[in-house]
């Protein structure tokens, strides 16, 4: 069997149903083998779109997304997408073509050192040196991508390897002597945590993306309810605990709720699960959770003790450890504490000023109401992302898809396409900004030709809004390079030019009926351009590097 | 315990494959850890290489280095030998200036005291091969400076733990 056919068989063995990709000189043999393989090939219009779509597919489904690109520029165009997946621990396989083996190192046409470039942004990568390595490498790559702390794995395959012959012999098992992820938390540490839970007066759980990745949302809810501990979430943890739940504190950190941040500042026991204490969550590290004993559960030993000093480290899988917590949960007394938190919730709710104009927060609230929390919300990066995080009422894990770690503008639209491909029957909505939507707008063509009914709601304030907000607050309103007024395309015409549906809303009262029309349209993508108040800010806000106490409450 | 900037000799066993050295050196540069020296070669098992890496840092940095190295798929085992009873050696080739025979004789005497070897002689220089631990190497280099060192070539430290 030739290498290209072997690759296809490997992908089938791993249950791959769809590949997002873009052809090119070094992957012609592989594309040829895929042509009648039965695996769906979604031709994106840029390799970056392919990487984000594979990532969105993974995030929405929990399966492994696969993207494909040719050598050289194809591979470098994947780089942002691979980094995005790496920062958020998303399992993904990136397949790249490479120039023929005998040309490697010669600066051949479309040659780039792909494994060299992607080494720091992949969990692991491979350059295939002979066709008979393909089966072992694919087996290992899928295994590495999805186990332990998941992440993207890249396989770089020279063109000649795709054409030469070898036997197809897919290994049953993987044996990597140097890679043995730990799933079960240490029993003594678990016991120690539970005795702390028993004694704690003001405990808080801080749950991150690890809870989503390990499918532990159910266990988290059980533990929180049994121990009566309120739950704050990181951006990546959104959806991991239902927004409407009485123990829900919302998002913590820079644009988190005041009550979540207050709770962290006052807690005497912080149980962090599957989060890595990013600077956007902690604010000033030396003043983070000053009164707390900190328990940190994470599958990745590196995350523990990296930013915040931890009293009880538990290396393990969130689901497994939470099960242990649930099964051995002590009796607790947190009534006073919950009372205080409820007082904060009433006093400092997330809010904005209703000026009668179309406000971005109102748009997200309306989407939340119309979809009843059942949609998959994908975001771009910036203000749109924060308003989506703050105002959508999430019910389930894997329904909030956003580039958390890398903060990649242009992520949302292709990721939404991937999510929609993974979840055909779900409503998928990309909440976008007028800046970020233009970073991968070419994927409209992909969505139209594949009839992917993604809804894109563009919160158009004619600014690169988040940077403008920082400029307003910290740079004396010097709006350097952030104003897009009169430099913006007509998004409705743009959608129509691609063969998609486009609507524009600029009045509050027109919003609902337009959104309903968009939500009911399932033949392909829809753009809903919402012209919103231009200088609206995201509040509350904690300035970068400040303590969680230093909250700016704006009159948004 | 561990002081700021104390030297540590870390022994890392890795898969003997191309690209592994780049992964490790890339990790150090990306995370801003300093490598003082790095020596690598095949072990008794030809599929495994051993790297002896000398690094500096406080306890927190050392812990991160240890964990980050372990996170690499190709890394089999990481050991901080400084924490154990261990043997350290380094090989140094020293080219020393010799203006006249008196100087040459003096150097040869010192070489004998240090149990080093003269491996090359020419009119103007002597090349000395010295094997030893850090203090011996430092002492020898220091002494030779008085004669004028033309070139120093060092392997970097390698280390192994003492068998119990």
Summarize the structure.
The complex is a heterodimer of chains A (556) and B (164). Chain A has 556 residues and is an alpha/beta fold.
Describe the protein in words.
The complex is a heterodimer of chains A (556) and B (164). In chain A, the strands form three sheets. In chain A, strands 2-1-3-4-6-5 form a six-stranded parallel beta sheet, sandwiched between helices. In chain A, strands 9-8-7-10-11-12 form a six-stranded parallel beta sheet, sandwiched between helices. In chain A, strands 14-13-15-16-18-17 form a six-stranded parallel beta sheet, sandwiched between helices. Chain A is an alpha/beta fold and 556 residues long. Helix content of chain A is 37%, strand content 16%. The termini of chain A are far apart. In chain A, strand 3 (65-69), helix 4 (73-87) and strand 4 (92-98) form a beta-alpha-beta unit. Chain B is an alpha+beta fold. Chain B has two domains: 6-83, ACT domain (Alpha-Beta Plaits, 2-Layer Sandwich), CATH 3.30.70.260; 87-161, 2-Layer Sandwich (Alpha-Beta Plaits). The longest helix of chain B has 13 residues, at 59-71. The mean pLDDT of chain B is 93. At the A-B interface, loops of A face helix 1 and helix 2 of B.
Features:
heterodimer, A: 556 residues, alpha/beta, Rossmann fold, 6-stranded parallel beta sheet, 37% helix, B: 164 residues, alpha+beta, Alpha-Beta Plaits, 2 domains, 5-stranded antiparallel beta sheet, 4-stranded antiparallel beta sheet, 4 helices, elongated
What's the CATH topology label of the largest domain in chain B? Alpha-Beta Plaits
Calculate the terminal CA-CA distance of chain A, rounded to whole Å: 63 Å
Q: CATH architecture of the largest domain in chain A, please?
A: 3-Layer(aba) Sandwich
CATH architecture of the largest domain in chain B: 2-Layer Sandwich
Instruction: Report the radius of gyration of chain B as a whole number of Å.
Output: 19 Å
What class do helices, strands and sheet pairing of chain A give?
alpha/beta
The whole-angstrom Rg of chain A is: 24 Å
Q: Report the strand count of chain B.
A: 9
Return the average pLDDT of chain A rounded to an integer.
97
Largest β-sheet summary of chain A: 6 strands, parallel
Residues in helices of chain B, as a percent range: 25-40%
Number of individual domains of chain A: 3
Largest sheet of chain B: 5 strands, antiparallel
Oligomeric grouping of the chains: heterodimer
CATH superfamily of the largest domain in chain A: Thiamin diphosphate (ThDP)-binding fold, Pyr/PP domains
What proportion of the residues of chain A is helical, as a percent range? 25-40%
Uncertain runs of chain A are none
